[in-house]
From TrEMBL:
<dbReference type="GO" id="GO:0005737">
    <property type="term" value="C:cytoplasm"/>
</dbReference>
<keyword id="KW-1015">Disulfide bond</keyword>
<dbReference type="Pfam" id="PF00578">
    <property type="entry name" value="AhpC-TSA"/>
</dbReference>
<dbReference type="GO" id="GO:0008379">
    <property type="term" value="F:thioredoxin peroxidase activity"/>
</dbReference>
<comment type="function">
    <text>Thiol-specific peroxidase that catalyzes the reduction of hydrogen peroxide and organic hydroperoxides to water and alcohols, respectively. Plays a role in cell protection against oxidative stress by detoxifying peroxides and as sensor of hydrogen peroxide-mediated signaling events.</text>
</comment>
<dbReference type="InterPro" id="IPR000866">
    <property type="entry name" value="AhpC/TSA"/>
</dbReference>
<dbReference type="GO" id="GO:0034599">
    <property type="term" value="P:cellular response to oxidative stress"/>
</dbReference>
<keyword id="KW-0732">Signal</keyword>
<protein>
    <recommendedName>
        <fullName>thioredoxin-dependent peroxiredoxin</fullName>
        <ecNumber>1.11.1.24</ecNumber>
    </recommendedName>
</protein>
<comment type="similarity">
    <text>Belongs to the peroxiredoxin family. BCP/PrxQ subfamily.</text>
</comment>
<dbReference type="InterPro" id="IPR036249">
    <property type="entry name" value="Thioredoxin-like_sf"/>
</dbReference>
<feature type="domain" description="Thioredoxin">
    <location>
        <begin position="27"/>
        <end position="192"/>
    </location>
</feature>
<dbReference type="GO" id="GO:0045454">
    <property type="term" value="P:cell redox homeostasis"/>
</dbReference>
<dbReference type="InterPro" id="IPR050924">
    <property type="entry name" value="Peroxiredoxin_BCP/PrxQ"/>
</dbReference>
<feature type="signal peptide">
    <location>
        <begin position="1"/>
        <end position="22"/>
    </location>
</feature>
<keyword id="KW-0676">Redox-active center</keyword>
<keyword id="KW-0049">Antioxidant</keyword>
Amino acid sequence: MKTLLLAATTATFLLSSTFANAVDVTLNVGDQAPSFVIQDDTGANWNSDKHFANKTVVVYFYPADMTGGCTKQACGFRDDLSKLEGENVEVVGVSGDSVRNHQLFKKAHDLNFTLLADPDGVAATAFGVPFTKGEKSITREIDGKEEVLTRGGTAKRWTFVVKNGKVVYKDDKVNAAEDSQKILAAIEGLKK
């Protein structure tokens, strides 16, 4: 009887610990930015600790390469990048797309900033961004050739600004077409 009681207690403890760790992260302004390592659009490892430590980084999550809203958002950051870099701000886009997809997306739209491949939702989960696992594919014509772009999962469209390792801005209701302009205003507000 004691063995059965001990086994039941242990099982209950283990299950409650498992579910407690499965609780979604909620990252708010003022919180420490999360640590993670994922691949950038060149296939190299991108370590958040190295980028977040002593500078300002815009981290924007988007659902998929080569789709309407995501392309508008990326092109907005492309067009405003010189202004952001003038404020010593780095921009990175993050989606569940592969390195190859990111390379095609950058080429098709002349994107001039880093895209991070997050097919397993590592970065999205670390930031508390909703992420749905599961492969999805779209077909697009790029340079006259039909390409199939398959992603490992889909993140919601959220944007963060990290300054010196801390989250200083969070938007979980992003308007794709206006995101870069909103970020420029937020960066200006951080100077005050």
